[in-house]
Amino acid sequence: MKHIFIPDTPNVSLVAFYGDKPSSLKSLLILLQQYLVNSAVFKSKFHPYSLEQAHCTVIGCEGLKTELGIVNKWFYEKRREIKYIKLAEFLDYLLTSNLFALDIRFGSYKPSHDYNFLSRNFHPYKRSFHLQPSRNNTLIPILIGWSVKGNLITLELETLRKQAQKCNLLHKYHNRTESIDNDFYLRLGTIKGQFNPEAIAEIETEIRNILQKIPPVRIVLEKKHLAFVQYQNLSLPIETSKIIPLSEITEQKLLELYPHC
Question: What is the value of pTM for the model shown?
Answer without folding.
Answer: 0.94
